[in-house]
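Notebook B, p. 112. Complex prediction, attempt 2.
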Amino acid sequence: MRKKILVDPVTRIEGHLKVELEIEDNVIVSARSSGMLYRGIEQILIGHDPRDACQITQRICGVCPIAHGMASSICLDSAFGISDKIPENAHLVRNLIHASNHIHNSILHFYHLAILDYVDVTRVKKGVSPEIDLVVQFLQRDEKAPFVPREEDFKFPDDVNQRMVENYLKALEMRRISQEALAIFGGKMPHQCGIIPGGVTQKLDAGKIENYLGKIKEISAFVNFYYWQDLMDLIKHYPDCSSAGKGCGNLLAYGAFPVPANGLEKFQPGGVYYSSTAKIEAFEPERITEAIEYSWYQGSTGHPATNFPQPDPFKEKSYSWLKSPRYQGQVFEVGPLARVMIAYAKNVQPWKNCLLEALDSTGMKINDVISVAGRHLCRGIECKLLLKEAEKWLLKIDTSGEFYFDYEIPQESRGVGLTEGARGAVGHWMSIKDKKIAHYQVISPTTWNCSPEDDMGNPGPLEQALTGLRLKDENQPVEALRVIRSFDPCLACSVQLKNSNKLHNRKFYIWA
Amino acid sequence: MGNKALRVVWFQAASCTGCTISILNSSSFKVKNLLLDEIVPGHHLCLLFQQTIMAGSGEKVLEVLREQGTRKDFFLVVEGSIPTKDSGIYGKLGEKTMLEWFGQLASACSGIISLGTCSSFGGMFAAAPNPAGCKSVRDVCKTLKVEKPIINIPGCPPHPDWFIGTIVHLLNRGIPALDDVSRPLDFYGGLIHENCPRRPYFDKGKFAYKFGEEGCLYLLGCKGPFTNSDCPLRQWNGGINWLIKNGAPCFGCVEPDFPEKMVPFFEKPKDNKT
């Protein structure tokens, strides 16, 4: 018998996500992913001074504001005609700000967003460490929020479980320190002020370099030892995760982190990868389109450089505020998994060796990487390699050199800014008229990953990844939640709304 | 345990989760102590509902929200503004609009902390043309005729000390002294300009004309002369930096007219402001 399961809200993600699952004999036969909030930042940007975009678009998301700060500044650099004039020092500092945000996000995602699907906070023994004693004391409370209520399917042995609870708490500090490292160059976090069109706001001195280096070292020690160990244990004790949540198998990255002295080359390469044929292609931005068949917008499918669909919460058939970005009309997953696999397929180091070593220690095969476990693994690989690379970028900075290139705002122009947020490919497209913003479109990573069905009838990557998944207990679909969270959804970028008529006509089985 | 709980529902509406991340960045008062320990002797915080960190999902956690609607012993923390256009259809949670949830929670709670500028004054998403009809907590309460004590902790994002410091004061001595827009005077009691380390440049008339130059940042858009917060003294992210120290202008993010009257961000403020 078919029935519907509604998971709303999906917690421990950014923003407001609803997932509707249709199941038959405990197997998911179809899935619908919906964002539940529209704020309209692209509409708000129209008419603004173009430079405001690098502050306003950061407010799209407080978890990954850097993704938008970077994309908008690259977009403005190109609109102002100064992309090739950005000083090498500015690229380095932008890379450091950008890398810190990825590092923060990897730690936040693994320990604070994902791990409670696997770790039992209530199973700890007193007298092991001050952190665990705090937990033991907490567990004597009548109300154990925010750790209870929860879904329960825990498989770690006691000692591993306890270490992970302890690391959940240690990771709170590590994530904070990575935000502090960012603030050394960004002024504050969230919503930093360091990245601006033309470069960065501030020259550096030896003191700032020493501050950043110290923080990177402290985080590295934690990441290379505990984070890596916990990641390996998760893959070992939850073997199902290496086969669950495969999805569309097409991977896309724009590339990020320009390597100084050569603005064209990037530390993280872009590319287009088809896992079914193991074919890798060069990425061409003109091939992106956004469909709105099942999204609450009026307009047509088109390229973000010119297309500007208007919100319509009453549109029939629609079930999401997210649009459906497609590449050459096909469904693509973006994110750390896509980036690492593309670098691997292109034989780019240090990515390839790091992935091969990780596969060796986990016993995973390359074909297992597109999975829940693979998404966690690639996020960890990124965190490790960026920490290492950040130190190199830092020491290349010439404190006596230039950090900013001044410019005039053109009367009319167009810009495009493509980079990688922690959660995947992010693109900004704009046009300027009379020195003001006349057009602005953003495609965020989660718009790719959690997009609804498109005009060709193809469901989005998350919807595909959920389909075919077996649930042990439909009353607590923890397997589905693990798949959803492996994508690290960030809904703030644009979220969906439900058609009100449909809402009243349907009956939902709501899981309890 | 003989320990009293300050029961808190943290409701996220039209937000970016930046307020949550900022509070998680707290450096003097550690987050592990906020979650697990006493805040002041005999009092702890019980975070009943907080979507970014809570363990459960779906119906299980909606039930927590519904249950609070029937009891009065909780404090409501609101992050983000409330979408109100077309009866709030632009923001939903568990098949109900955020506006409906907010109405129920606000009527039941013992008091409200509006965390962040969106919640306090409308903020970024209420900027023209305000596509989702976003409103501040105070404005929505007025429309719904809900009368509750409201403390505003604005900032885009708010500093973690401003929030946790206010909680400590609440538990220790009750509602703190507030200014005319309901901000605690301890944190928002002075102009940035008065405590700015670049103030001597302003007084001497030495201004920076492009980024990276020595001088006061007024001509590059600094809104410090009419922005009230202790950023210059407290600084950000464990005291490691803040905007003006980083060579960027203050954007005036704690003020009721952020962002509308603070843009263009990188232009000298309009004369009527000073």
